[in-house]
Structures are given as structure tokens and as C-alpha cells.
Amino acid sequence: MTTRALIIDDEPDIRELLSITLNRMDIEAEVAANVAEARAALESKQFELCLTDMKLPDGSGLDIVKYIQKNKPELPVAVITAHGNMDTAVQAMKAGAFDFVNKPIDINALRRLVNTAVSASHMSTASDDFSEIIGDSPLIHQLKQSIKKLARSQAPVYISGESGSGKELVARSIHNQGPRANKPFIPVNCGAIPKELMESEFFGHKKGSFTGANQDKLGLFQAAEGGTLFLDEVADLPLDMQVKLLRAIQEKAIRPVGAHGEISTDVRILSATHKDLEKLVEQEDFRQDLFYRLNVIQLKVPSLRERYEDIPKLAQHLLDKLDEGNTGTKTTLSKSALAELSRYGFPGNIRELENILERAYTLCDDYTIEVGDLLLSAAQKVVQKENQQINFYNACLKYPSIDDYLAEVEKEILSDALEHVRWNKTLAAKKLGISFRSFRYRLSKLGLADENDD
After folding, report:
1. How far apart are CA 417 and CA 274, in angstroms?
2. What is the structure's pLDDT at 214?
3. Is residue 126 over pLDDT 50?
4. What is the DSSP code string of 128-192?
5. Residue 379 — very low, low, confident or very high, per pLDDT cuts 50/70/90?
6. Domain total in the chain
7. pLDDT exceeds cutoff 60 at 385
8. pLDDT band at 213 (very low <50, low <70, confident <90, very high)
9. CA–CA separation, 370 vs 354, rounded Å?
10. Would residue 190 count as lying in a domain?
11. Is the distance from CB of 405 to CB of 391 less than 8 angstroms?
12. Do both 443 and 375 map to the same domain?
């Protein structure tokens, strides 16, 4: 299959340079000098890649990006920007651009960008893998859809969410479903690196550059070359390191400690923190310009108490992992234990659920976890009331009105009561503390009465 690219630039020299470069990569190049020519080409032909300058005679590259996003969202489009004009690049990526390249154009950087973009255009949605993101709630469905979309882009993504909510899993999923999947995914906890070693850890160092530097060392950017660098707890970076990280992102280049020149890098940056970065920016504890670069696209990971309906499936998934290697056994939660977990607020989110289940797994008898095995403290249960309110609100959203929801709850209560007494209606009414006549009326109203009740 012929790979075809569209080049949009009003400078003949740039169009020729890009065409020659792409032809040498066995990519057929078509050119356009303005927005009108570009739209005509896009409407009549199929392309796997689009490269556009930002300044065009009858518009801008942003017009091209928006047109492609609306009409051909699967087509990767990269923008060519003036050197140092990062604001324009960020604006384009927010609008949906795949990536950017600076003028004067670095041919090697261009080749890397083109290869990544072509890989993205050939990606199949059939390969989507969400095996580590467990849940079927509306919020998780929305999260998965966002991951699929972001995986095709190279724009920096800032992943926000509470501690323990699964931000690293989301970052890894974005990497695994994108064109960099066969390259390294390097996660780093920014708060775990000593301040004096931070520059060396990120950018590497040359032998003899400082006391103890007995040999050259590659940094995290070089270790992630061609892949993804995930900066977890990025809010913990000291201000002087924030400046150096900002330059590395803008220039797509790093300078190892003790080196005389810069080394170009090809790394996608994903970042996360449980802290409020915007508040830290207001307090001048985090650089606004770095926040602007990292937060090109923001993705929020929901807390566990926002998706309570996923707890049964998630809990069983974690128990199945604990059961691995145990032939013929399957540990489960009793109904009462599951109900207790569903009422709990989980301030520590999935990480806390995992710790609770690991402890209960050790304490339980006969491979069934009971309420007592969970060891949820009284202090921790204070959040349950708030969680119940959230659960009630989320459940109501599934029904046309609150009356429909309450009717469904009542139906469930009556059915459980009947099952508990083996469908003895007189006994069920007594257990519920209502008259037999009232009980029959409720059964009839909710469509649970049988023909013999008349």
C-alpha cells in the first residue's frame, strides 16, 4: 500500500525539502501552498499524514487542524512552527494536532515524527487493550474512550486524580495503545529522586562531571528514547529542575551533566500528580509556563467512590490475582462483605482496596471473605455516609425520575424478603413490618404479584 502525505507550506523551498525527505522514506508527497488548495486535496484524496506550516496566505495551520479534526479525525496532522514559538505549538495540539516540528527543520527529528505519525495512521482500533482498567461504569467507559483518542496523539497529557486511583495504569494504557507501544515506557516518581541527583537522573552525565561520576550514564530521557516518559508526582519537582524540564520539552533536546552540546530526544511526556497543580501555580510553587506545557490535554481519573458500581468486578479481579497458582480454588466475597465494601468511601482508592483484600485474603476461612475479615476501622467508616449519598445520586441518574429509582429499590427489597422466606407472603409481610394487605398491594403495584394473589 502506498503511503501518501500532504505538505502545506507557502514557501517553495520548504515544500521541496519536505517532499525530498518523504520520498526518500518511500512516502509519496503531494503539496499545497495554502488552505484552499489543502482542503481541495483533502476532499479528493486519501492521506496517511499531513504536515502544515502555521502561517499560510489565506489562513493558518490551525484552520487545517480544525478542518481535519472535524472531517478526517483519524488523519495525523503535524504543524511546523517558528523556532521558540511554543505557544503556537501548544495551541495547535490542544486543537487536535498530532505533534509539532520547529523551523529550521531538523531532518532527523522530522523523520522520527513522520515514522510515528504513519504508525499512528495505520493503527487498528481492534488492538485496544484495557485489561488493566477494570470496570463498566459510565465514568470508566468515558475514560477508555479518552484513552483511545489520546493514544493516537503525541501531545503531552496531564493525568489528574486522587492518590491510588490508577493514574499510572492510565498512562501505561495510553502508551500501549499508541504508535510508541513497542518502545520503552519509563515511569518515574519525581518525589523519590534526591534533589542533588535530579539533573543527572533525568538527563544523564558524562564521566568525571562531578565527584563519583566514574562513567557515562544515560538519563531517563535517553532510556525512554522513542517511547514515553511518565512523570508521576510531577508537583514534587523543585523549581530549578522545573526550568530544565521546560527547556527539554520545548527544544526536544537535553544536555547531560558535563556535556558540551545538546542531544535531540524523541520522547512523549505524560505527567500526573494527586495535588492541585493550578493551586500550586497560584502559590508560585509550580512554574506556570511548565504547567502550560504539561497540561496541553488534561485527563481526570475518577476516584473509586465515584464509580461504586465497579467495586464487585474490581474486587473479584484483585482476588483472582491473589488466587493465581492456587489450583482449583477461587476466593470470593460474601454478599455482606461486598455490601460493606460498596458502602465504604475508599480515601485511598484502588490501592486501599487492594491492601484491604490482601489482608482479608490471609484472614478468611474456606475461601470466602466475610465482613469481619475486612477489618475496616470505625474511623474509616465515617466516609460511608458521604459515599452512600454519592451512590444514591449516581443510581438516580440511570432512571428517568427519582420515583422510578425508588420503585426499583422497593421491588428489590420485596423480592429479597420473599426469597428469604421461600415466597411465604404472610411471613414476608411480617418480616417487613407491614400488613399482609399492604404487602399484596405493593406486589401488585410493582408487577410482582402472581395470578393466585387475586
Report:
1. 44
2. 83
3. no
4. ---TTS---SHHHHHHHHHHHHHHT--S-EEEE--TTS-HHHHHHHHHHTSTTTTS-EEEEEGGG
5. very low
6. 4
7. no
8. confident
9. 16
10. yes
11. no
12. no
- The pLDDT mean for the chain works out to 87
Give pLDDT, residue 399: 64
At 410, give phi and psi (nearest 5°). -60, -40
* Judgement on whether residues 296 and 309 belong to the same structural domain of the protein: no
Cis omega (within 30 of 0) for bond into 179 = no
Contact by Cβ (8 Å): 305, 387:
yes
Which carries the bigger pLDDT value, residue 242 or residue 251? 242
Asked whether the predicted pLDDT for residue 431 surpasses 70, the reply is: yes
Q: What are phi and psi of 95, to 5 degrees?
A: -80, -10
Residue 265 shares a structural domain with residue 135: yes
Say yes or no to pLDDT of 65 above 90.
yes
Cβ neighbours of residue 170 closer than 8 Å, sequence gap 6 or more: 133, 143, 147, 159, 299, 301
- In what order do the strands lie in the sheet containing 27-32? 27-32, 3-8, 49-53, 77-82, 99-103
Q: What are phi and psi of 111, to 5 degrees?
A: -60, -40
Tell me the CATH number at 407.
Answer: 1.10.10.60
Give me the amino acid identity at 239: L
Residues 275 and 188 in one domain: yes
Q: What angle do CA 38, 42, 48 make, to 5 degrees?
A: 110
Domain span including residue 159: 130-300
DSSP character at residue 435 = -
Distances (CA, A) of 355 to 207, 221, 278, 325: 43, 33, 31, 19
